[in-house]
């Protein structure tokens, strides 16, 4: 069976060339010469006895054979890479990969991250955003930033934020809100996935006339804050995510009543395997950074 398998270098040259539709771009990605990539692809075509590309002066076009073959090659390369990583782990010089809740990445982490990059210019980062709090996958990420109460299986957690919740709205809407029960006449904006929501705040504010379930549901705070900024309703702001909106005057708090909650954002690191060489540096910086803002 394996005697029919073309050399891996030929397959990699084909996959990148097919994805980039350019031998030149493929050569740059593979750190080879354009002539070498072209030769690898030509050798593969001769081996398979089928033309894979229609060669135009400045670009490539996939033949029907290439269109059928490409997803199979990509799947095989992905499986090989995953298997290698599963058995041997990541190369020690690979970038530090951090998954982060998208709203936290935009509203909290991004404004602070330049300080880390300035202090550690040689540290290479990859930040991948997430919406739903899937379990920490230590095989795919070095560190993870999730929202919760601090209970995360198979992970060591560091609390980054102490949260409070309070209604926020555009300044033009604030004049219509004098007491919490006035929210009954407004559209409430919800973010799915939080344990503490409108029902928590309304109960603490003694606002029995307000239906805590009415309004618009979203799956990320970014959408809810954007809607509130546009005057489409009232969002229940969390301190860590809403700070930039409030400081810039985009959103205002019509009431002084803030409710402290147990939830918050946590930095997770694995406990079952060795961490990336730069992970400890990033963890220490982020924990110290969070201590100055809580």
Structural overview:
The chain is α/β, with parallel strands linked by helices and 294 residues long. The chain contains 10 helices and 12 strands. The protein has helices at 8-20, 23-30, 34-48, 64-88, 102-119, 171-174, 198-204, 221-229, 239-247, 279-291, and strands at residues 53-55, 60-62, 96-101, 125-130, 143-148, 155-159, 164-168, 188-191, 216-218, 234-238, 259-260, 264-270. The strands form 3 sheets. The chain has a 5-stranded mixed β-sheet. The chain is elongated. It starts with 7 loop residues before the first helix and ends with a helix.
List keywords for this structure.
294 residues; alpha/beta; 5-stranded mixed β-sheet; 41% helix; elongated
Task: Give a quick precis of the structure.
The chain has 294 residues and is of the alpha/beta class. It has helices at 8-20, 23-30, 34-48, 64-88, 102-119, 171-174, 198-204, 221-229, 239-247, 279-291, and strands spanning 53-55, 60-62, 96-101, 125-130, 143-148, 155-159, 164-168, 188-191, 216-218, 234-238, 259-260, 264-270. It has a 5-stranded mixed β-sheet with strand order 4-3-5-12-6.
